[in-house]
Automatic annotation (TrEMBL), chains A, B:
Transmembrane segments: none annotated. The lineage of its organism: Bacteria, Pseudomonadati, Pseudomonadota, Gammaproteobacteria, Oceanospirillales. This is Fur family zinc uptake transcriptional regulator. Binds 1 zinc ion per subunit. Zn(2+) binds at C114, C117, C154, C157.
Length: 167, 167
DNA sequence: AATCGCCATGTTATACTATAACAAACCGAA
DNA sequence: TTCGGTTTGTTATAGTATAACATGGCGATT
């Protein structure tokens, strides 16, 4: 546990990062008496391998290649399970799914999404949540769920020529 | 201009609210030399009439009823125009569109969405933006666009029996 | 070990959301 | 009036997600 979130750093140890996420997932599912079946584990692995938001249909070919059925319900069921366990999050503005770097406890999620390199990192949403809570409570609104997805350019991509900060 | 944003108040003057939005839209388009054609105006009217986020395909029948072609491109083109002019916003987490209460100038948008009555109100996102900017700048991330969509229960719906704050 | 029931997966079909591509009509400026 | 760009019509298709029911595997209980 307590893995590092590599953020937008391109040169972190990908393999370690992924293995660590999978191992944490196994531990958590065992603790919770949930079944991390081969399909579910494979989907989680694929998401971490790519290390960027992945569309459901992008994942299907790899499922087929691994010998599983690859009709849409297969992948959506796996994604549903992984989301319920907090192992992946859905990014609504991209129709895509990404691994959660700290699935041990449920939490509000928010993302910075780089339009240059397509990577996304999970934000600490506490400050955003405080701001939202304040606005909401003025209206007597009771928050149940927050979607916070910010598109822009990461530090690396800002220094690449040709990248502009358009969404 | 300077219309009131009725927020979650159920008993505001709907007709006035809608007429005002349409009249503002006409003014803005004239100023900008953009053409608020009958289809575009009708789509905007339908969105304001319902006064809640509307899916593209929910709007199509009314287009057909008004004698227009009602194939999907018709509605998406109108919505694209209205978004470009800032007259409507898209809510990604709902795949839906809603009228903007202050389209005079471009702005970041954010929404509180009531899961009880399906209404949505546009937030003042300045405080949220400050919080996001701070988090982003720590990572050297340059923000281009923010999606902020908060689901919960409005004050009215909290007092209705049977409503819970689940998203 | 056998049984039972639940959960997971397979399979087919379909709903829902959005865009591509090209033709025809319209509209406004020169 | 003519021209050229914009808007709309039309057909087709891409992309995202779920319904519904059958089948199979796994694990708890006996
Ligand atoms: Zn997370
Ligand atoms: Zn980047
Ligand atoms: Zn707005
Ligand atoms: Zn409400």
């Amino acid at each position: 546990m307590n893995r590092e979130d590599p953020g937008f750093e391109a040169n972190h140890n990908h393999d370690h990062c992924m293995e660590s996420a999978l191992s944490t997932a196994k531990d958590l599912c065992r603790e919770r008496k949930q079944r991390l079946t081969p399909i579910r584990e494979l989907v989680l692995k694929l998401i971490w391998e790519n290390h960027q938001p992945m569309g459901a249909y992008e994942l299907l070919p790899a499922l087929a290649a691994a010998g599983f059925n690859s009709a849409p319900p297969t992948i959506y069921r796996a994604l549903e399970f992984l989301q319920e366990q907090g192992l992946v999050h859905r990014i609504a503005s991209l129709n895509a799914f990404i691994g959660c770097p700290h699935p041990e406890s449920p939490h509000r999620s928010g993302f910075l999404i780089c339009s240059g390199c397509q990577r996304a990192v999970e934000l600490d949403t506490a400050p955003v949540h405080r701001a939202l809570s304040e606005s909401a409570s003025e209206l007597g609104f009771k928050i149940a769920h927050e979607t916070v997805e910010v598109v822009g350019l990461c530090a690396d991509c800002q220094s690449q020529p040709g990248e502009t900060a358009d969404a």
